[in-house]
Amino acid sequence: MSISLATVATEFLDRPGLAKSTLQSYELTLMPLLERHGSLPVETLSRSLLESYLNGLDHLAYTTHNRHQATLQSLFNFAVEQSYLCANPIGHLKRRKPNQLKGEHGTDEVIRYLSPSQIEALYSLLERNSRLHTLVLLLHRTGARISEALALNFDDLDLANCKFRVLGKGNKQRWCFYGQDLDRVLEKYLRLYRHSNCPALFTAQQPVTRKVTRLSYRAAHNDWTRLIAQNSVLKGVRLHDLRHTFATERVGLMGIEELRALMGHSNIQTTLRYQKVTSSRAEEVAKQALEVLTKSKVAL
């Protein structure tokens, strides 16, 4: 008797012992696959079909793409263990490598962040979309990962103290803090746009069934893609770049250990990369200032 991919995924997610953060990560990762192929019998999902699906996720950073692939491999390993499949259709599938044309590097030394002109252009476009405005400001002002933001529930917020707690990598908890600008935008979103019958902070309503669900990464990314397409200065900017922008804005304003704690980095070396970025920015600014001063002296 055939069993659908959606049923296998439900059993995979219902396994005892999964940490809450792991479960939320799995759910967010598997949702796009289930939306597309969830009704298919699991034995009909061929290697070529799954490779085509993974290749279609080219908007993801290679590290996120690898996490998606690892989750799928775990899902199909589970299907094998339950005797729904004889073999994992994507067993030993090579993972995507960094694409240097996209600014990706194996050491992740190149950090992409928004310039002041890009930030100004971005916020000028956000007024008409309260949910995306709230999500973007939250990522920019708190340094939360997109997966952490989408996994938030309304009850995770401490509105009185402008903070919330997330479960990051390694099932580690940390507090994220925000100021009055996000507080105002968040209040409007909660009052006018969030669906209160869903526990998630960021909610979405299906256009046909009218069912309210947690906002998926795919839907958030689609909203983001449509937004940045409105201004060429934002071409190629990723949602994850808002986290990098948060960090580069704070290097030098606080201790590196404090920044590491806010970012949720387990390794201080990861945080120290932002000092290199700040040094590069300082060099650029110094050269620009020197050019201006030189021109002024020539004019005199």
What's the SSE blueprint?
Elements: H1 5-13, H2 20-37, H3 47-55, H4 62-81, H5 116-125, H6 130-142, H7 146-150, E1 157-158, E2 163-167, E3 173-177, H8 180-192, E4 203-205, E5 212-214, H9 217-228, H10 241-250, H11 256-263, H12 268-299
Antiparallel strand pairs: 1-2, 2-3, 4-5
Helix pairs in contact: 1-2, 6-8, 6-10, 10-12, 11-12
Describe the model.
- The structure is a single chain.
- By secondary structure, the protein is mainly alpha-helical.
- Helices cover 53% and strands 6% of the residues.
- It has twelve helices and five strands.
- It has helices at 5-13, 20-37, 47-55, 62-81, 116-125, 130-142, 146-150, 180-192, 217-228, 241-250, 256-263, 268-299; strands spanning 157-158, 163-167, 173-177, 203-205, 212-214.
- The strands form two sheets. Strands 1-2-3 form a three-stranded antiparallel sheet, with no helix packed on it.
- It starts with a helix and ends with a helix.
List keywords for this structure.
DNA polymerase, domain 1; 300 residues; three-stranded antiparallel sheet; globular; hpI Integrase, Chain A; single chain; 5 strands; 6% strand
